[in-house]
Amino acid sequence: MASSILVGGCGLLPIDRNVAAFCAETADVKDLVFTQEEDDSFWNAVRAAAGQSGTVAMADVVAASGWNDTWDVMVKASAGVEPDRLNRLGGATDLCWTGLPRFAGDGPAHGVHVFFRAGQPIRAVEWDWRTQLFMIPGDVDQVLRPATEMAPTEYNWLQPA
Asked: E-strand spans in 16-109?
């Protein structure tokens, strides 16, 4: 009798099969997250932009944090995110994920924002109820791109203008 396991983004696989053979690549969120210093710098840059008047491009917010790498899209991955959704929004194909945020019962909201370049995850910044400073109203599949103009809200969050 064969047993199966559910692998994020890959579906059900027999336990005795090599998971890597079913994935073009595996991404571990823990390998992508900013260091604590980078994380603090990122959220300080977001807070500074949210405290200003007018709009600012998302690329400028990210650059103000000191991280100047090229990226195409930033995807919000809340606890319990479906790997297939994350792949679709980030432009990835056949990518399996480990270390995605999980639900913690009635715990506070948390997750990561994953930055992609050419369909590959390159970095991630963790967020929780204290640092979640992006409001993306409307379509839950909306993503942020470098050219996305962000505007401050009355609550000192940033949202697409």
From this structure: 25-28, 56-57, 73-78, 95-98
